[in-house]
């Protein structure tokens, strides 16, 4: 039993701060003495398969942290309208479209919503509705997405704000 325990300890790699080890030495010593003298039984061991993400964390093989690109623009096509610069905002959780742009698309109706948007300046805005399942073309890919339509002034240079959901497509190209 003792040799099996020693072999297990040889395979064990734990990252614990040295100060924590020193503070808990009496506790560990008592625990090890009870195990070695068979006063305390170790429970049965089980193997556990970890998914790639957790395995990377345990083995300290984390991906390199990249810089935050901030906000940037992407060209998008909405039905018959091409927009050269759609603002892709990493902080945004919604796709936002001005009412004037919605009218250019000539869709019939919006789905009513009870959503209240609170902007950075803490002002509350009530959307006109939600445009559901709009096909958006980015490069050669099509996405069906929902847009919140808001009665606001349209920025001619960047009329649409798309959320971080479009960023998950980077692996497709």
Automatic annotation (TrEMBL):
InterPro entries: Peptidase_aspartic_dom_sf. This is Uncharacterized protein.
């Amino acid at each position: 039993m003792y040799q099996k325990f020693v072999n297990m300890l040889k395979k064990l790699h734990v990252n614990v701060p040295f100060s924590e080890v020193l503070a808990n030495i009496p506790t560990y010593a008592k625990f090890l003495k009870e195990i070695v003298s068979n006063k305390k039984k170790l429970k049965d061991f089980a193997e556990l398969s970890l998914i790639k993400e957790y395995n990377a964390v345990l083995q300290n093989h984390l991906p390199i942290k990249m810089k935050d690109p901030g906000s940037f623009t992407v060209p998008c096509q909405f039905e018959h309208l091409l927009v050269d610069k759609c603002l892709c905002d990493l902080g945004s959780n919604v796709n936002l479209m001005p009412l004037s742009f919605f009218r250019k698309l000539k869709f019939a109706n919006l789905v009513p919503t009870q959503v209240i948007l609170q902007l950075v300046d803490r002002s509350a805005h009530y959307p006109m509705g939600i445009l559901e399942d709009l096909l958006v073309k980015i490069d050669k890919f099509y996405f069906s997405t929902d847009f919140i339509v808001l009665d606001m002034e349209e920025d001619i240079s960047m009329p649409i704000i798309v959320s971080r959901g479009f960023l998950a497509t980077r692996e497709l190209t």
